[in-house]
Design goal:
Length: 102
């Protein structure tokens, strides 16, 4: 009976003896060639002199995802002060129904 339970094929396992590693990306040390440094993001509010106000949903939508979530500073590049102001105005506009909830 134990002979019937034996697996057919080789004994390396389901992944063929690769230990679950995926060889497509070249291992952990893979880095794509190209620009090694990144460009510092600029504060769009400061540069374009945008007036952040709950009455201007067209401006506020620039800082939202398609689902209505607020984009973080590391994505938009806004300063901490302007991000706080932006969040406050977005929440006001949401409360009044001018923007969709995220």
């Amino acid at each position: 009976m134990s002979d019937e339970m034996k697996r057919s094929g080789d004994s390396r396992g389901r992944d063929g003896g690769r230990d679950g590693r995926d060889d497509r990306d070249g291992g952990r040390g893979f880095r794509p060639r190209g620009r090694s440094h990144f460009r510092k993001k600029v504060d769009k509010i400061k540069v374009h002199n945008l007036v952040v106000d709950y009455k201007r949903p067209d401006v506020l939508r620039r800082f939202l995802t398609e689902n209505g979530k607020i984009l973080p500073r590391r994505i938009t590049g806004t300063s901490a002060k302007n991000q706080r102001k932006l969040v406050r105005e977005i929440k006001r506009a949401r409360y009044l129904g001018m923007l969709k909830m995220g």
